[in-house]
Amino acid sequence: MQNTETQMHRTLGRSGIPVSALGFGCWAIGGEWQDLDGQPLGWGKVDDEESVRAIHRALDLGVTFFDTADVYGAGHSERVLGRALGKRRDDVVVATKWGNLFDERTRTRTGQDDSPEHARGALTASLARLGTDHVDLYQLHISDAHPEQAARLRDTCEEFVREGLVRAYAWSTDDPARAAVFAEGEHCAAVQHALNVLQDAPSMLTLCEELGLASINRSPLAMGLLTGKQHMGRDTLQEGDIRSRPPAWLQGFGDGSGADPAWLARVDALRDVLTNGGRTLAQGALAWLWARSPHTVPIPGFRSVAQAEENAGAIEKGPLTAEQLAEIDRVLGR
Residues 70-96, buried b or exposed e (16+ Cβ, 10 A)? Predict the structure, then answer.
């Protein structure tokens, strides 16, 4: 078992920036937003005041890493996070993303722009919404951008670092080859990618190990499947929740009629080992991520103080043991 200090903190790759071992993902607090076809892209309605209280509670519990994106809620997530942090901004590490176009007034995602010119304009806008003069980690949010164009954007990020607008940068992508392109930059510190106990990513973790990158884990709770609160039936998902009309890339929710029974069966099979030691199912899933690699920083979402407390409560219980990792692999047949 790791000691408390190791459990509480990790380093953001080769940047040397210390972060809590647990980050908080701010997608959900952006509220409802959509694409041009009316496809929901958020997690349904939210209470901004509860979001602020949840962020304050996370800070009190030792969480120092917050991940958002300019497009979450079409700018709303950044505004809520900036307001909540207020005078405590310098106590935390803030990550945001760019690459999407959106209309704040209609809360609609309207397209993408992979030009260096857009990157600069997007950064300026994010700084204003966050109420800060710099972003600690700036991440490309176009997962399938062409590597040659990404190399130009990497050079643009280096300019941002020299200007003091950004401390480090990363790419949000599930492709190790693309992540390696950004990693050629001196101040590239991480890659954000999907990783959870149901969806391992060994190639990406190997890349992080070889290049000294932080592995920032989105979907650490498999879009809610690993909280134990998802069941079969669409009535469990509210209007405006992306899982009620899942896009092709969103696994585990079938045709939108609720959680996929096969995925729920895998969760049930893991329940005993993940809840060992007094953990909740979600806490066990986070503990698996910490045990999986010393580079991982999971960023579960939240919309309430209760969720913030449950997620942060995983820290004191630490990672799973090697024996528990092996048992999980046995149960999942991998």
Answer: bbbbbbbbbbbbbebbeeebeebbbbb
Phi, psi of 19 (to 5 degrees): -135, 160
Alpha carbon distance 206, 228 (integer Å): 30
Residue 48 contacts residue 322 (beta carbons within 8 Å): no
Nearest to 71 by CA among 114, 38, 36, 42: 42
SS3 102: strand
Summarize pLDDT for 117-139 with one digit per residue, the tens.
999 999 999 999 999 999 999 99
Helices 305-312 and 281-292, packing angle to 10 deg: 40
CATH label of the domain that carries residue 72: 3.20.20.100
45: part of which helix (H) or strand (E)?
none
- The DSSP code for 73 is T
CA atoms within 13 A on the CB side of 15: 29
Q: Which of 216, 214, 235, 236 is nearest to 225 (CA)?
A: 236
Query: Is 283 part of any domain?
Result: no
User: How far is the CA of 147 from the CAs of 171, 176, 181, in angstroms?
Assistant: 11, 11, 7
Residue ranges making up the domain that contains 192: 4-229+292-319
Going by C-alpha positions, the residue among 42, 99, 66 that lies closest to residue 239 is 42
Question: How many domains are contained in the chain?
Answer: 1
What is the sign of the dihedral through the CA atoms of 154, 158, 163 and 166?
positive
Q: Which amino acid is at 211?
A: L
Name which of 217, 144, 202 is nearest 178 in CA terms: 144
- CA dist 298 and 311 (Å) reads 10
Residues 239 and 31: their CA atoms lie apart, in Å, by 12
Each residue of 152-165: pLDDT tens digit?
Answer: 999 999 999 999 99
Structure tokens at 70: 């300019």
Segment 197-208 mean pLDDT? 98
Q: Yes or no: say if 19 and 217 are a contact pair by the CB < 8 Å rule.
A: no
